[in-house]
């Protein structure tokens, strides 16, 4: 099965993936949000397959900043579900690739020196995973 994404679909995927990393960085502000964002973004840039090409495209992604974590979550969690819905309709294997890529980016961005999530980041990871699985 092939994958044929519109420009809007691609923007939704990039917004969802990079937004998930931004959401984790915002939730972990007590730690090092810059490290979370950098490590997570590097992981997203390492994606392969059609998803890797979409995430590597250079385009402006708006809406990754908010006045609160809640405001950011209101935009990003639905985008994650929408991205998974679009991908599942076209190619379930690419939906799995996208889901795995986002989760690896979260893991890469949020591991502490003791290899554990903080409770706040663990809760946000659960919410992000729930949004990915809601489709």
Describe this structure in words.
- This protein has 135 residues and is mainly α.
- It has one domain.
- It is built from 6 helices and no strands.
- α1 runs antiparallel to α6 and α5 runs antiparallel to α6.
- The longest helix is centred in the middle third of the chain and has 22 residues.
- It is globular, with a radius of gyration of 14 Å.
Unreliable stretches covering 5 or more consecutive residues: none
| Secondary-structure content class | mainly alpha
| Rg result | 14 Å
Overall 3D shape:
globular
- Give a count of the beta strands, DSSP E runs of length 2 or more: 0
- Euclidean distance between termini CA atoms: 19 Å
Q: What is the residue-averaged pLDDT?
A: 87
Tally of distinct domains: 1
Proportion in helices: over 70%
Proportion of residues in extended strands:
under 5%
Could you give a short account of the major beta sheet? none
Question: What's the short story on this structure?
Answer:
The chain has 135 residues and is mainly α. It has one domain. Helices cover 73% and strands 0% of the residues.
Chain-wise SSE layout:
Blueprint: H1 7-27, H2 33-45, H3 49-56, H4 69-90, H5 92-110, H6 119-133
Keywords summarizing the entry:
single chain; 135 residues; mainly alpha; 0% strand
């Amino acid at each position: 099965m092939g994958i044929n994404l519109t420009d809007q679909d691609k923007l939704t995927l990039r917004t969802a993936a990079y937004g998930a990393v931004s959401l984790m960085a915002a939730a972990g502000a007590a730690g090092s949000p810059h490290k979370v964002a950098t490590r997570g973004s590097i992981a997203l840039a390492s994606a392969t397959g059609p998803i890797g090409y979409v995430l590597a495209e250079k385009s402006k992604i708006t809406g990754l900043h908010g006045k609160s974590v809640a405001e950011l979550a209101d935009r990003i969690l639905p985008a994650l579900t929408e991205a998974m819905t679009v991908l599942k309709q076209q190619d379930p294997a690419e939906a799995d690739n996208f889901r795995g890529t986002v989760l690896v980016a979260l893991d890469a961005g949020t591991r502490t020196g003791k290899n554990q999530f903080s409770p706040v980041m663990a809760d946000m990871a659960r919410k992000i995973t729930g949004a990915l699985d809601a489709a």
